[in-house]
Amino acid sequence: MSKILVTGGFGYVGSRLVPHLLSLGHDVRVLDLMLYTEAGFEALKADPKWPEWEKRFSLVRGDLRDAGKVREALAGRDTVIHLAAISNDPTGDIDEVLTRQVNFDAVGMLLALAKEAGVKRFINASSSSVFGARTESEINERLEPEPLTYYSKYKALSEWLVLSASGPEFCAVNVRPATVCGYSPRQRFDLTVNKLTADALRKKVITVHGGQQRRPNVGMTDMINLYGILVVAPVEKINGRTFNFGFENHKVIDIAKIIQSELSDLSVKIEVTDTADHRDYHISSDRILNDLGYKPVSSIKQEVAHLRKVLESGQFPDIDASEHYNMKFMEVGRDAGCLAYLAR
């Protein structure tokens, strides 16, 4: 059993990861500012297994840029899974300083404090968007990142912090997920697959903007499965390494067709419009398939089927509610707490 700290543990991915880690028998602590409601925490407490899990769970409510809260959260932990971030390209572009403070400055402080606390393993969630828009046929880990946004820029830079911290006593690894799709108690509908699925179910029409842009995706089930594996993976296989993680590199129009096929009983139509967003990227995940022997356990099709069941159950009655869209809901200001730590 590992004693794990999950930063951002009640965000989109964290809200599914935390119960998964608890189901594997780990002791889990979450550090979270609860920016996007408490839906993930409420779902955890509503789980039938909560009475058993509760004694292996703890929560620190706080900001990743607050050294005191970070120290409190790290106490007694041997593993960190770092998910907390100003998340996705449009949200990160709202304020570069804020994005830098959370996605870069705070990562450096977290690493320093993790080492100070005796943490032995650090798993960092980066992003496949660090590659930018590329034409190469093989987008693998040997290709130099060319980030296009503040979000991807500071994700790319933070990878260097993580790798420079790695060593014999501190196993550190970067994961570059494709866009995650699927259900979470802290549901997002500002992600391609989720948005198109929701529109198909309620409107019977999928509106595709452009359609020729490629978007790599990975299912939520695979995402949480990988983090569970990395917690116990042999150090020599992951220490100081970076892994792409995404298995379906489809054009947006083809994603729409996958969704249309999965919802074939609804006679969903696809409408194509013009777009100003021509970001086009794909990734190769051969390294994680070959070096770690990872085998995908999900797919866009399976995640769409699961999301359909959840939506038809009425769990999210208002798909347009602001809490399902990072740019609409996020309210957080600049905080130079990491600078205060650096200059102490």
Overall number of strands: 12
- How far the N terminus sits from the C terminus, by CA atoms, comes to 35 Å
CATH homology superfamily name: NAD(P)-binding Rossmann-like Domain
Strand line-up across the major sheet: 3-2-1-4-5-6-10
Helical proportion?
40-55%
CATH topology: Rossmann fold
Tell me the strand percentage band. Answer: 15-25%
Rounded to an integer in angstroms, the radius of gyration calculated over CA atoms is 19 Å
Corresponding CATH architecture: 3-Layer(aba) Sandwich
Give the overall shape, derived from the CA principal axes: globular
One letter per element, helices H and strands E, the order comes to EHEHHEHEHHEHEEHEEHHEEHEHHHH
CATH class: Alpha Beta
What number of domains?
1
The stretches of 5 or more residues where confidence is low (pLDDT under 50) are: none
Structural class comes to: alpha/beta
Mean pLDDT: 93
Q: If helices are DSSP runs of H or I spanning 4 or more residues, what is the number of helices? A: 15
Describe the sheet with the most strands: 7 strands, parallel
